[in-house]
Design goal:
Strands 3-2-1-4-5-7-6 form a 7-stranded mixed sheet, with helices on both faces. It is of the alpha/beta class. Helix 4 runs parallel beside helix 5. The relative contact order is 0.15. It has 7 helices and 7 strands, in the order H-E-H-E-H-E-H-E-H-E-H-E-H-E. The protein has a single domain, classed as Vaccinia Virus protein VP39 (Rossmann fold, 3-Layer(aba) Sandwich), CATH 3.40.50.150. The longest helix has 14 residues.
Length: 212
């Protein structure tokens, strides 16, 4: 698979990313729209979802990514493999998420993952980070009871920030009594997760559920 070269960082607050996208016709994308849906926010090249879609054909998978060339490449590979339970969409998640989730059938969204998002280390760039209180509130509005949010990062302070923002919302409850999950609950690790483990560095993970 050829790799498309793109910028590593994209400022989600820049003017070019402030226009809300129109939701696609989901019935033309997924062969069975009523299957449970796993949403991966910030999917990058989409390799994680590609493997998940092949492992779990009875689920639908949607990757949101702000770098459009990566989305085009990922959808091209999906088409080459003939997968009808997978789609990638160009999106600034903190602008588009409510509109996108409102367009989906009720109850289908069952898993949301946010994995190794850009830390935006400088304090003045904090608003560029993916997990903002507004994003958590949008997920709380649209996720049905029993749905899960999975977060992981190799940057401890960022993992803490993400965890605390989800935990602060009354709609979500952590599933693990300890601070971090010892293992990834998903079938497939991301490329970044594999590289982090190979370097001997820790990964900080947490899982939330929306109780009945």
């Amino acid at each position: 698979m050829a790799r498309v070269r793109v910028r590593q960082h994209v400022n989600p607050l820049s003017k070019k990313y402030q226009e809300i996208i129109s939701p696609p016709n989901w019935e033309k994308i997924y062969s069975n729209l009523q299957q449970p849906l796993h949403l991966d926010i910030g999917c990058a090249r989409g390799r994680f979802l590609l493997k998940m879609a092949r492992e779990q054909p009875d689920w639908n998978f949607l990757g949101l990514e702000i770098r459009d060339p990566l989305v085009e490449e990922a959808n091209r590979i999906r088409d080459e493999l003939g997968l009808t339970n997978l789609h990638y969409l160009f999106s600034n998640v903190n602008i588009d998420l409510d509109s996108l989730l409102s367009s989906l059938p009720l109850q289908v969204l069952q898993w949301v993952s946010i994995q190794f998002p850009d830390p935006w280390f400088k304090k003045r760039h904090a608003k560029r980070r993916t997990v903002q209180p507004e994003l958590v509130a949008t997920l709380a509005q649209h996720l049905p009871s029993g749905a899960h949010i999975f977060l992981q990062s190799d940057v401890e302070w960022l993992a803490l920030e993400m965890r605390d923002r989800v935990a602060a919302h009354p709609s979500f409850r952590g599933t693990h009594p300890q601070l971090w999950l010892p293992e990834n609950p998903l079938l497939v690790p991301t490329e970044r997760e594999i590289a982090t483990h190979n370097q001997g560095d820790p990964v900080y993970r947490c899982l939330f559920v929306k109780p009945d």
